[in-house]
Amino acid sequence: MKQIAKDIWTQDGDRIRFHGIPFDTRGVIVRLPDGTLWLHSPVSPTDERVAEITALGPIAHIIAPNLIHGAYTEQWAALAPDAKVWVSPLFPRKHADIACYAVLTDEAPPDWAATIDQCHFAGSKAIDDMVFLHRPSDTLIITDILQRHDPTREPFLWRMIKGAFGIMAPGGRVPPDIRMSFRDRDAARAARDRILSWEFDRILLPHSVPVDTGGKEFFRKAMSWLDQPTP
């Protein structure tokens, strides 16, 4: 567990493989003004990890931020039966068996609207990231559409492959396969522009090295491909 700023933490999880590709995992925890916790893509629960989180307050909200981030949702929901499970628009299509309280939209619910803003980064049927802004700490929270993996965590082969794709820190961008999945660029540009209207300096990325400062300009450059001609 690492405290990022007042009332916001990250928690590292296990290293996983998705379609054979190795990824680090990292959850984000926000303590809301009422003292309850908002968990973004929580990592695999162990006794130690659960104890770290519950020491901060009661879990009220569990966020599944896109359709492929459902691995541990049920486990955390079972550990916090009073918590509400919120999912991305495409999540129910892939996880019809996972019960949820509500589907997230562009409008933050009253439960956290005073603290956290949100935007559905639409335009792709393969990935549907919900992007969040923790306003008190000027922190943007992105799941998969922006990646910058840690070179110290990668074996030689994956360091070379991820480096060739431009998704290795200190660089980082939208991975090529995710770019190609965006067929509705107007929707994606609208989401990008809305996010750029927010004030933020830091970016937290569940699978990647965070951007500690200069996050807004980093995000702007990483999304500049949306203004290029469609191949």
CATH class: Alpha Beta
Q: Uncertain runs with pLDDT below 50, 5 residues or more?
A: none
Could you give the distance between the termini?
Answer: 42 Å
Strand order of the largest sheet: 1-2-5-6-7-8-9
Mind telling me the CATH superfamily name? Ribonuclease Z/Hydroxyacylglutathione hydrolase-like
Architecture in CATH? 4-Layer Sandwich
Strand content: 15-25%
Counting structural domains, the number is 1
Instruction: Enter the CATH topology name.
Output: Metallo-beta-lactamase, Chain A
**Radius of gyration from the alpha-carbon trace, in angstroms:** 17 Å
Helix/strand/pairing class, anyone?
alpha/beta
> What is the element string, with H for helices and E for strands?
EEEEEEHEHEHEEEEHHHEH
- Percent helix, as a range, is 10-25%
Major beta sheet summary: 7 strands, mixed
Tally of DSSP helical segments: 7
Task: Briefly characterize the structure.
With 231 residues, this protein is an alpha/beta fold. It has helices spanning 47-54, 73-79, 91-94, 156-164, 176-181, 185-196, 215-222, and strands at 2-5, 8-12, 16-18, 21-23, 26-31, 37-40, 59-64, 84-87, 102-103, 116-120, 130-134, 139-141, 202-204. Helix content is 23%, strand content 23%.
Secondary-structure blueprint:
Blueprint lengths: L1 E4 L2 E5 L3 E3 L2 E3 L2 E6 L5 E4 L6 H8 L4 E6 L8 H7 L4 E4 L3 H4 L7 E2 L12 E5 L9 E5 L4 E3 L14 H9 L11 H6 L3 H12 L5 E3 L10 H8 L9
Parallel strand pairs: 6-7, 7-8, 8-9, 12-13
Antiparallel strand pairs: 1-2, 2-5, 3-4, 5-6, 10-11, 11-12
